[in-house]
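Deliverable D4.2, example record:
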Amino acid sequence: MKYKSPFLDDRKKLFENSVGFVILDRFPVNNGHCLIIPHRVYSDYFSSTSKEVEGLNDLIFKAKKYLDTEFNPSGFNVGINCGESAGQTIMHMHIHLIPRFLGDTQDPSGGVRGVIPLKKKY
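Output generated by the structure prediction step:
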C-alpha cells in the first residue's frame, strides 16, 4: 500500500513554492503554529536535496513574516523531528514554526532543550 501523507488534506495552504507549502498545524502549540512541508514525501530532513533545503527555508521566512503581521509574537521556535526516538510520528518530513509569546509558559529558558526535560536547565 502506498503511503498517503496526512498533510494532503483540505487545509488552506498559506504559501507554496516549487518545493513545498505552508499550512497551519491541526494541533497547534500556540496560535499561528505552522508546518512547512515538502511536496516530495520522505521522512528525514537529512534526506532533503539542496534545492529542497533552499525552498523550505524560503517558506520558513515567508511564514515568519506572515506570523509577525498576523500574531505579533515575541519569539519563535523552529523544530524538526527526525526519527521515532526524536518524537517523529508522521513520516513525511515537516518543519514546525511555532510563534512564542511573553508569558505563554512560566519559564521558556532552555527552549528546544526541553525535549529532554532534565537537560533543559544547564
